[in-house]
Specification:
- Two copies of one chain form a homodimer.
- Chain A folds into two domains: about 120 residues, Pseudouridine synthase I, catalytic domain, N-terminal subdomain (Alpha-Beta Plaits); about 140 residues, Pseudouridine synthase I, catalytic domain, C-terminal subdomain (Alpha-Beta Plaits), CATH 3.30.70.660.
- Chain A is built from seven helices and ten strands.
- The first copy, chain A, is globular.
- At the A-B interface, strand 3 and strand 4 of A face strand 3 and strand 4 of B.
Chain lengths: ~300, ~300
C-alpha cells in the first residue's frame, strides 16, 4: 500500500466502514423514490467522484431490512483512474483515505456515518471475504428503564424476561445447523449456518437493558429476528429449550414464533481474515452460498 | 400512604418520573401550535383525567430548552376528587399508580415515557424540594466512534480532546460560586449555585464517547452548555484552567465561550431529601431562588 492509486491495473478498491440509524431508512437496497442507505451512499459518491456513475460496483457485507441499524457495516467499491483524478493529489495514502471519508461525511445526514475509508488489501471482498457477522438485539423488559433516548434502537416489552431460560434455550441453536425453521427461505439458497456465539445478558449500567448477541459465519433472511422472537417466548414462559430444539430439528417455519420488530436490531461488526487468507475465504464463501442468497437479515 | 386517594383534604398530589428524547420537541414549556414535552403530557393527562383541565398545576424540576433530553425528570400535579373518580376504583395504591402510568404511556409517543407515578409524600414539591440535579453531556471527539444510533444525543467534534486538561479546568468551577459568566442572566434571579460534582471521562465501552457530568443544587439558564463549551475549548488547547478561573471570577459573559448544542445534553436525575426533611428543603429553596428564576438549562 505504498501508493494510494494503482494506476497500473487501472483501478483501486476501497473498503468503507460505516454505520447508520435505520429508523428513517427503507432498508439497505436502493429503491426509486425511497430513502435507503445504499441510495444515500451512492448519492454522496456521485457528488465526490462521478456524477454519471450509478452503481460504483457497490458490494456490502450485510443487506439489512427496513428499520434495522448498523454500528459498523462494511462495503467495497472500485474506482477508475478518472474517478480518482477528481479527488486531486494527496501526499500519502492515509490523507487520500481521510479526504474521501470527510467528503462523504460532509454530504451524508447525521443518521449515517462513514467510520473509515481504506484502500482494500489484495483479494478483499466486503461480502465474500467476511468470516463472521455479529448482530445485537436490545430489549427493555419490565425490569429495564424504558429510556426514550434509546427508544429508536430498543424493543420495549411489558413482561419480565427470564434470562437464564433464554440463555439455556439459545445453547440449543449453537453450532452448524440448518436454520430453515428460523429463516425466510429464498429459492436455491442454503439455510445452513454456523452459529458460533449466542449470549443473553442484562446490562448492569443505568437502564438494565437486555442484549442478545449472535455471531455466525453469515445469517439468512430474518434469522436474528426469528431467533430473538423464539427466545422472548422462552423468556416469558411460553416455550422452553426443548421446544426450541424441536423447532430447529423440524426445519419448518409452520407455527413459528414471531419475527420481532427491526427496531431492536443492530449489525455490530463484520469480521475479516488476515490479508494472506483473504483469497481462500472468498473462494470458500462463494462455494457455500449462491449469488441469489443476498438478503442476510 | 394507606389510601391512594385522600378524600378528606380533597386532592392528591402525584409525583411523575419521566424521560424524553428532546430532538423532536420544542423544549419543555407549552407553546401554542408547537410540539413540547409539557404540551404532550398535558394532552395525555386531559384524556386520562379531565377533558376541560388545561394546567393540572403541573410543576417540573427541570425546564429544559429545545433539543435537550431527559432520562429522568420529575413533575408533580394535584388531582381533584372528580378527576380521580374518572379512573375507577383500585384495590391498592400501587395498582392506582400503575394504572395511571400505563394509561399515560399508552397515549404518549415513544420519544416520551413515564417511568413511574407515585402518590407524593407530604410536603413534596417537584421543583423546590429538589436537592440536586444531575446533567450529562456526551461528546464524540476524533478518538470516539461517531455512532449514528447515538447521534441524536451526542455532540460530534472533529478534534481530539485532552481529558486531563478538561478535568483540571473543571475543578476551578467546583463549589459555591457566582456562575454569572456561565449563565444567560434573568432579571432579579441569583446566579449563585453550588456545583458539587464535575467529572470528565471517556467511556471504555464500544464507542469511546466522552461524558461530562455535572451535579449541582440547581443550574441557571444555559449553565451546563456554557461550562461544556468552555471545557471543550480547554480540551482543544484554546484555553487553560487559569482562563476558566479568571472567567468565573470576572462574572461577565463578555467574550464568553460557545454555548454548545443542546443535542449532547441529558437531564439524568433529580435528587430529593428523605420525606421528613422535605418541608424544610422547600422553604430553603424558595428563599434562595425567586419565582422568576424558572428556566434551569
Amino acid at each position: 500500500m505504498n501508493e494510494p492509486v494503482d494506476l497500473v491495473s487501472g483501478f483501486v478498491r476501497l473498503r468503507v466502514d460505516f454505520g447508520y440509524d435505520g429508523t428513517d431508512f427503507n432498508g439497505w437496497a436502493k429503491q426509486p423514490g425511497l430513502r435507503t442507505v445504499e441510495g444515500s451512499i451512492l448519492d454522496a459518491l456521485k457528488l465526490v467522484f462521478d456524477h454519471d456513475e450509478n452503481s460504483f460496483g457497490l458490494v456490502v457485507a450485510g443487506r439489512t431490512d427496513a428499520g434495522v441499524h448498523a454500528r459498523n457495516s462494511v462495503l467495497h467499491l472500485d474506482l477508475t483512474p478518472a474517478q480518482i483524478k477528481r479527488l486531486g493529489r494527496y501526499s500519502s495514502p492515509s490523507m487520500f483515505e481521510g479526504a474521501i471519508r470527510d467528503r462523504l461525511n460532509n454530504i451524508l445526514d447525521d443518521d449515517i456515518r462513514v467510520c473509515s475509508v481504506t484502500v482494500a488489501p489484495e483479494g478483499f471482498d466486503a461480502r465474500f471475504a467476511a468470516i463472521h457477522r455479529r448482530y445485537r438485539y436490545r430489549i427493555a423488559d419490565a425490569v429495564s428503564v424504558k429510556d426514550p433516548v434509546e427508544a429508536r434502537h430498543t424493543l420495549w416489552t411489558r413482561k419480565p424476561l427470564d434470562l437464564l431460560e433464554m440463555q439455556a434455550a439459545a445453547l440449543e441453536l449453537y453450532g452448524l445447523n440448518d436454520f430453515a425453521a428460523f429463516c425466510k427461505p429464498r429459492p436455491f439458497a442454503t439455510t445452513i449456518r454456523n452459529l458460533r456465539q449466542v449470549t443473553v445478558r442484562r446490562r448492569t449500567d443505568e437502564n438494565q437493558v437486555i442484549e442478545v448477541e449472535l455471531l455466525a459465519d453469515a445469517f439468512c433472511h430474518n434469522m436474528v429476528r426469528s431467533i430473538v422472537g423464539a427466545l422472548i417466548a422462552v423468556g416469558e414462559g411460553r416455550a422452553d429449550r426443548q421446544v426450541i430444539a424441536s423447532k430447529l430439528a423440524s426445519g419448518s417455519r409452520e407455527g413459528s414464533f414471531k419475527v420481532v420488530s427491526p427496531r431492536g436490531l443492530t449489525l455490530m461488526e463484520i469480521g475479516y481474515p488476515e490479508p494472506a487468507l483473504m483469497a481462500q475465504q472468498v473462494e470458500n464463501a462463494k462455494a457455500l452460498r449462491s449469488i441469489d442468497d443476498e438478503v442476510e437479515d
